[in-house]
Design goal:
By secondary structure, the chain is mostly helical. 82% of the residues lie in helices and 0% in strands. It has 2 helices and no strands. Helix 1 runs antiparallel to helix 2. The two termini are 16 Å apart.
Length: 73
């Protein structure tokens, strides 16, 4: 089943994908720089926590947009 997607939804999806990719690349870039820290595990766990939090937030935004489009249609 095909459904019409607005330009706004596509742009929000693109922005979310861009932020997600930039966070992944940030984690990859910062990992070698932090190797001289003794607590690299805790630093990576903190980065993973914020990345996971962002993904949950992104899901809530997607659900909210989908419900709003259902009400409009």
């Amino acid at each position: 089943m095909l459904r019409t997607v607005s330009k706004r939804t596509l742009s929000l999806d693109f922005i979310a994908a861009l932020i997600s990719a930039s966070m992944r690349s940030f984690k990859l870039m910062i990992s070698p720089l932090l190797c001289w820290y003794q607590n690299i595990e805790s630093v990576l766990q903190i980065l993973n926590f914020f990345y996971g939090f962002f993904q949950v937030f992104e899901i809530f935004i997607a659900i909210g947009l989908d419900r709003r489009q259902m009400v409009v249609n």
